[in-house]
Amino acid sequence: MAKPFIKWAGGKSRLLAQIRPKYPAGLGLNINKYAEPFVGGGAVLFDVLNNYPLRQVYISDINRELICTYTTIRDNPELLIDALRAYEAEYLPKCEDGRKETYYNKRDRFNFLKHEGIYGVEIASLFVFLNRTCFNGLYRVNAKGGFNVPQGKYENPLICDEVNLVNVSKVLQDIEIVCGDYSLSQNFIDENTFVYFDPPYRPLSETSSFTAYTQDGFCDQAQIELAGFIDKISRRGAYVLASNSDPRNTNENDDFFDVLYSRHNITRILAGRAINSSSGGRGKINEILISS
Length: 292
Hints:
The chain contains nine helices and seven strands, in the order αβαβαααααββαβαββ. The chain has about 290 residues and is an alpha/beta fold. α2 links the parallel β1 (about 35) and β2 (about 55-60).
């Protein structure tokens, strides 16, 4: 069974048991298309692909390096696996200082390729390597767009998960993979489509927006525009499911999403904070699921 090939802030692997009951009843039957416009780590994507027969699938994200990695796994898995094996053989035998030097050299190379717009197997393999060896699997960029996450302290990181990469490549065959904004999915979506949205979450506090995933933020106005898009495709007949933070975790009177999605169903689920700088801040909080 294919599973996410990277760690990803806000990944849904641990929440699938609570998300699955919100899948449409006709998934794999009359609902035979699937779209995920903020694909990220793809936990819901792979759960759907593993369990339901679908006629067409569309995924997208604005993170160009992430999308390059998806397309490389789909189209050139052998070359990616060879590169990751080489990184693993280079990195794992080294002492702490040697690993540190290797990590930052590869981070510099990744940022060079990114800056020069050189996309292919090398940047995809570096993307996976950095994800597996950086601090908490974060993807964060600075104001100039450079990946700036420090090295993580892992004794034996799994850099080349060959079996899963082969499985992922198999299920990604014939899938449309697009680098771009969620609005590009509108021509794919119709009344036979299940669409899952997992956008950048609305921060619960001024200090909680730690995942600067691209140079552009996702502010309240962007959340409002996304809600308008969700209303639009819902009227078209698509079945929609969306995740986001629950503002009531920190302000019981903050009804931002309750008002914004008043035409839809809102369910609150318990979620563990998978990434937090303080271990004391990794408790259970609510997230919301918005469904049509």
